[in-house]
Amino acid sequence: MTAFTPMPLADKHQLLVELCEQFEDAIFILDKNLRYLSVNATYELMLGYTEAFLLGRPLGVYAADFLSEEEQAVLKNLTNSLDSTGFYESDFSMANRYGQTLDCHITYRRIYLDDTAYYVGKIRNMSIVAKNKKKLVHLLNYDQLTGLPNRKVFLSQTSELLLDSYQEVIIVRLNIDGYRNLAILLGPDCINTLVENFVLRIKALELDDLRCFSHFGGDDFALLFECKDANMVRHQLDSLMQMCERPFFLNNNSTKGSEVYCHISVGVSYFPKNDNEFIGLLTKAEKALNYVKQHGGDDVCWYQKSINEFNAHHIQLESELRTATSEGQFIPYFQPKFALDTGEITGFEALVRWQHPTRGLLQPIDFIDAIIAHKLSLELFSQMAIQIAEQLSVWQTLGFNQHICINADAAEFSHPDFFDLVSNLLVQYKIAAHQLHIEVTESSLIKRHSNVKKQLNLLKELGICLALDDFGTGYASLSYLQEYPFDFIKIDKSFISKITGDRTQHAIVKAILQLAQALDMQVIAEGIENEQQRDLLLTMGCQYGQGYWFGKPMPAEVATDMLMQQHLSKNKDC
Ligand code: C2E
Ligand code: MG
Ligand code: MG
To answer: Which of 31, 40, 110, 205 is packed most tightly, with the most Cβ within 10 A?
Structure first.
């Protein structure tokens, strides 16, 4: 600890004078005859009279000619009280030199120094105190960004409403999907602008029977409805969801007019059906919200009992998935892609399977949403990518140079480690970049951001082929084609399944093929299940296909056998 050295007296005096000047109350010193000796800077500012003007003048002199009767009485009372007790304290309004009325709290105290009496006065401007108090109350009860009531206010309004309401009460909990990623990608200023715009849009909906719209912080909101009919709230929540289908435009230096889609997850509970008591209702709305988030978000869920079971299952699933990622239980199955004209295998799509220790081989439908919800996508991708790189190098040594295509979610692209992971694998396993293809689904691109575009461009520059998966099932397929550097379009199997019997599906596939040709892209038809579909697609000009008719997803050894057989039969033909 450093030694403490007391201040020299002169410095101490100087310090006291300077601190007094900084004081937020007006301080003044009078002599024993109540004449001004000194005033601080706040006094000059508050009352409008300079110290030079006041020095030697008696108390109240500046206003002597204009004092109202009430003020004269206060002054008299003050001098009497100071004479007799040496102390005076009062609240009153006074006018300053600029004609402003100040609500003041004044205290005077007599102090003796070496037998000489001085009076020290202090004036506190109560309107500033009241303003500060109001500010504090605001800070404690409202979110500072959006100005909406906070969680505390929401809870008290809900419990109040439940106490004196015999009507139905509905609690809605709402989160913005992928908020953490958005916040990282957009940066603090832009994410705040997004949240402000989001709140303005909800306000503009002028929802009926809304008793409280609250911001718990970040992307966390709550709405409290008092209504006669739950269906009415249902309709209003529909408008809320529709509102999110329009992009938000952010305009600043870093985002330059970029569009951001802000999807939401919504959980709802209502009184009296779900609970009688507000904490129970709130928890149930939160459980419903959680349920939506576990299912990929962008939806509304009304609480029901089965959600409890689901949540229990999900907690278990999450812990099992974490074990699966750390113990490497994910394996790729390979589905062949082939040239429709020659029937030759051009490559394979790697599709994840989970070798579960007790439940056997699980399909993506059983766990892929949970992977995304628990932010394990990058772990899954890296586990798959390593095995795929190993497989490519095995095939390379056997003389096969077919490509392997890996599925990736847009959330994986946004990850800062994604690009390095891919490029390092290519170097480590000595794989040519064009042998690795990456497929992105349209639906994952909906939650898009400029970062995804940047990452796709980087991969493309590296020489990796990119495919747009499930084409035609999303919202804005055509704009994706223009925006992102895809080499392949994969027509979703829902269009192929009816292509031979349904004129509309046929027309859609034809249009996609023409579009791809115009844009210099290659087309792969997914889900070819029979020969007629293959033949028709071939006559329509589709180059590549994939489907059960040709081969189901299979383990690596079976895929290798298939390549061997193709090789042997080719040699035989020669
Ligand atoms: P996808 O990428 O569109 O893959 C095609 C899906 O259709 C596969 O289902 C495949 O088994 C199935 N399929 C292929 N041919 C036919 C057919 O002729 N008829 C029918 N009815 N279905 C066919 P799977 O393996 O269950 O995968 C489902 C989805 O899971 C994939 O759709 C993909 O979006 C996702 N997925 C699979 N593996 C991964 C992965 O490693 N990472 C990520 N992020 N997603 C993956
Ligand atoms: Mg795919
Ligand atoms: Mg697909």
So the answer is: 40
- Ligand 1 pocket test target in 330, 334, 348, 351 with most atoms within 8 Å of CB: 351
Token pair of 464 as six digits: 């990796």
Atom of ligand 1 nearest to the CA of 529: 18
Ligand 1 site-directed mutation target among 407, 418, 498, most atoms within 8 Å of CB: 407
Q: What percent of the chain has pLDDT over 70?
A: 95
Residue matched to tokens 């008696």: 58
How many other C-beta atoms can be found within 10 angstroms of the C-beta atom of residue 512?
Answer: 22
Which residue CA neighbors atom 7 of ligand 1 most closely? 527
CATH number of 317-562: 3.20.20.450
Place of tokens 């999450």: 318
What is the 405 CA–ligand 3 centroid distance (Å)? 12
Residues 150-166 have pLDDT tens digits of 999 999 888 888 877 67
Q: How far is CA 289 from CA 175, 270, 284, 297, in A?
A: 8, 13, 9, 9
Nearest atom, ligand 1, residue 492 CA: 3
Fold for the domain defined by 143-303: Alpha-Beta Plaits (3.30.70)
Render the burial of 138-167: b for 16+ CB within 10 Å, e for the rest.
eeeebbeebebbbbebbbebbeebbeeeee
Domain(s) labelled CATH 3.20.20.450 in the chain stretch across 317-562
Most confident of 175-189, 190-204, 218-232: 190-204
Element (H, E) at 467: strand 465-471
Query: 385 alpha carbon to ligand 2 midpoint, in Å?
Result: 14
Q: Which atom of ligand 1 is nearest to the CA of 553?
A: 11
Per CATH, the number for 18-129 is 3.30.450.20
Question: Range(s) for CATH 3.30.70.270 in the chain?
Answer: 143-303
The answer to whether 199 and 255 are in contact (CB under 8 A) is: no
Q: Which residues line ligand 1 (CB under 6 A)?
A: 335, 351-352, 363-365, 368, 380, 384, 407-409, 439, 441, 469-470, 493, 526-529, 546-548, 553
User: Residues 170-184: pLDDT tens digits?
Assistant: 999 999 998 887 888
- Closest C-alpha to ligand 1, atom 15: 547
For 342-396, write each residue's pLDDT tens digit.
999 999 999 999 999 999 999 999 999 889 878 888 899 999 999 999 999 999 9
